[in-house]
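Amino acids appear as letters; backbone shape is given numerically. Here is one record.
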Amino acid sequence: PLLQTTLLSAPPGVRISGKLSKNGVSLAMRHAQFLVLPSVCYEGFPLVIAEAFAHGLPVVCSRLGGMREIVEHGFTGLHFNPGDVHDLSVQCQWLFDHPEECLKMSKHARAEYLKHYTPETNYKLLLDIYQTTIAQYRSSVLFADQPDPVE
């Protein structure tokens, strides 16, 4: 009953899809203007933000945790006060009313993805972590047998 009521009361241009497959999510994102992430939880790094950025979608999210850090307000998306439905609707309406600004945010979101979140970028970061860890380990093993300097 709640789902039916929600579906029937959704404003024009808003689509409530329910659960989607990975391909379904990608297809929906290709046809969207922006992504709404209305979580009221402290999310560390919601992958859906990186997925949205990969599709060039600005993200409207709550000012909480990692979401606030990843999505730059006015640049790659917009923030709203957690649990404040009116503020959420104001931010979404602003994007609908300012298509040129929404397009700029789309371009910034895509650029942010290419700079920070591609598999290649993550591979390089992970490789750097491993190389640093190995070098530190080797250094500690190399000097482990050395006597302490006499003072």
Remarks:
- The chain is about 60% helix and 5% strand.
- The chain has a mean pLDDT of 90.
- The radius of gyration is 22 Å.
- The first helix runs from residue 2 to 9.
